[in-house]
Amino acid sequence: MQPYDLAGQLFGSDMARSRQKDPAGTFGRRMAALREGAGYSQRELAAELGISQRMVAYYEAQSDRPPAHLLPAVAEALGITSDQLLGIEPVSPRRKPTNARLMRKLQQVEKLPPKARNAILEHIDALVSKHHRED
Questions:
Q1: Prediction pTM value
Q2: The domain spanning residue 92 has which CATH number?
Q3: Is the same domain home to 70 and 13?
Q4: Of the four, 91, 108, 109, 135, which is 20 to 30 A from 97 by CA?
């Protein structure tokens, strides 16, 4: 018995291959471009995903097949949908944050428990208030 894709096409057939090709390039190239656009280094994205930097480099350079178990986490880290990561839907251009590191830290703060999150926000409010008085 031969494996078939969801559309009933034989895997490896010319028709199945032509439908799977992304005009923007391979999955790895797309992932690298999206990672760079989000302001991540390979090392930073790896830490966010809980994998090694070598695995991120492998997915970007050597792999034309996405790591299914990581798709949701990669998409969330990059601020896009899985369909956009896979090249099924276009990624709408967005303005790159002026301080990508700060934005990533704020995303990490959002994931904290409410008590810890509120303590950090109070500290930020105090710092901002202090600097406004000095101006």
A1: 0.57
A2: 1.10.260.40
A3: yes
A4: 135
